[in-house]
Amino acid sequence: METTNYQKFRIDAENICVDYNGKVALYDANLRLKPGQICGLVGMNGSGKTTFFNALTGFVNISKGKIRINGESVRSAQKDQTIAYVPQNEGIDSQFPVNVWDVVMMGRYGSMNIFRCPRESDSQAVKDAIERVDLTDHLSTPIGNLSGGQRKRAFLARAIAQRASILLLDEPFSGVDIRTEKLISELFIQFKNEGKTILLSTHDMIHVREFCDLVLLINKTVVAYGETSEVFTPENITTTFGGISPDFLFGPES
Amino acid sequence: MELCSFLTLDSFITDPLTHDFMRKALLMSSLVAAVCGFLSSYLTLKGWALMGDAVSHSVMPGVVVAYALGLPFSLGAFFFGVGSVALIGLIKQKSRVKEDTVIGLVFTGFFALGIVLVSKIKSNIDLHSILFGSPLGISLSDVKQTILISLLVVILLLIYRKDLMLYCFDPRHAKTVGINVFFLHYLLLTCLSLAAVVGLQSVGIILVVAMLITPGATAYLLTDKFDNMTVISVFSAIISSLIGIYVSFWFDLETGGSIVLAQTFIFLFAFLFAPRYGIFKLKKLFTGNK
Q: How close B181 gets to chain A, by Cα (Å)?
């Protein structure tokens, strides 16, 4: 096995391509992340951010290239509960009849038996996770009755309960209140100290500068990748967004 | 006066039970309703109403061919039910036609094929009972088959209850934690085909989709918990079946239509008076303004 070469990387994506029925969504993309690194994924809508996430979780198949998670295949990463995906608020059906406890418990499904009967340890993991995102008062609140921020925290708790070492977060800061934003950023620092690897997509430039050690700028392929301080330059950002200045894009919002 | 109406109500319920075919119809329809009701929670949450319609119509040629060949009708129905879905997927992928159009044209094509086949293989097939159901004339071999299929579907749904719920809610997460989403997709389709097969005996091919979505939709308006939704769905389906059969017995109405109408009325009731999601929000009426 090629272990020695890959093991030091949590995520090692090499020249990956994804196409949907012949339509290319992502090509020749590379990404290498180590434990304890936080990487921002920045790009326009339709630039392949979600596709990148989908490739890493194995939700779509790559047509070319190679993905190694802890030196192993995506398939075994799924079996080992290595990757957790925290969806965008828009990506979930908020009217689905489940409550906070149910959602967080879904983080444990992969390690349960076929009937998904929670053991004592599962319930404890769920309880702890909910505590960490400060939703203990909302255990049995249907997700439809939560605010955007609370819902985001519930899904973050699901990732915590899963005990994944890699967290993929799709727009973790969009549509959340200040309290949630503060809590999420505190959690990021804790995760980093625990040695978790985080890849997050965001529209907010300030967040990238604030948390991300690394940044990956993409527009169907990698425009630039490296240390945030070096790569996150106005020129690169402008290229990523197809020539539109970042001030125009982000000025009024952030 | 009071006693008199009480007696009428009593005989309203017990009189039909003296007939063998009515007891059988009530039992079998309740079983079928329970199975379809169970499944309908998943179909309504997954947004597969149109898919349910497609599969249930597409089983038609399967039923006809199976009858003609002397095979169990469930086998033929299952084959064409799953086949229609595969064909829909194929055409959608290989052409620029939109999905709902593809679904519509595939299932009507299958359905038409079924009707043409019936006219060709006239002998012992009762088109009316396939189209509109015949819970009162169900044969013994059909009873056995229905019980077997129903048990199979219920067992599958019970085993994969939570996985299917997760699949409907967040397939991406399911995939990420190593759950076989591909398998769940086809499991749900298989159950859908099988439920359509048993359901069509009660209410017929044309209306069976109601059995597969209305109870779930009703339950969805009444609860915010998935397990409760399943239970309410099953119960409303069973009650509708009983009401439908009794009403059709006493007023000499088409049975399948009566069952579905009963479901529709229960849905309308929930739509108007559901505590939280109804138009009039019954809870508010009882507790005053707030």
A: 9
| Cα distance between residue A107 and residue B177, in whole Å | 8
Tell me the CA distances in angstroms from A103 to A93, B134, B162, B247, one per residue in order. Answer: 12, 43, 12, 43
For residue B279, give the DSSP letter.
Answer: S
| Interfacial A residues in 192-231 facing B (CB < 8 Å) | none
Return the percentage of chain A with pLDDT > 90, whole number. Answer: 76
φ, ψ for residue A226 (rounded to 5)?
Answer: 160, -165
Say if the Cβ atoms of B176 and A57 lie within 8 Å. yes
User: Cα–Cα distance between B290 and B288 in angstroms, integer?
Assistant: 6
Among B44, B94, B159, B173, the residue to mutate for chain A (most A Cβ within 10 A)? B173
Distance CA A123, CA B218 (A): 31
Can you give the three-state secondary structure of chain A, one letter per residue?
CCHHHHCCCCEEEEEEEEEECCEEEEEEEEEEECCCCEEEEECCCCCCHHHHHHHHHCCCCCCEEEEEECCECHHHHHHCCCEEEECCHHHCCCCCCCEHHHHHHHHHHHHCCCCCCCCHHHHHHHHHHHHHCCCHHHCCCEHHHCCHHHHHHHHHHHHHHHCCCEEEEECCCCCCCHHHHHHHHHHHHHHHHCCCEEEEECCCHHHHHHHCCEEEEECCCEEEEEEHHHHCCHHHHHHHCCCCCHHHHHCCCC
**Cβ neighbour number for residue B264 with a 10 Å cutoff:** 14
In this structure, is the dihedral angle defined by the CA atoms of residues A33, A39, A44 and A45, taken in order, positive or negative?
Answer: positive
The count of other CB atoms within 10 Å of the CB of residue B170 is: 22
CB B148 within 8 A of CB B215: no
Over residues B179-229, the pLDDT tens digits come to 999 999 989 998 998 999 888 888 888 899 999 999 999 999 999 999 999
Can you tell me the ipTM of this complex? 0.91
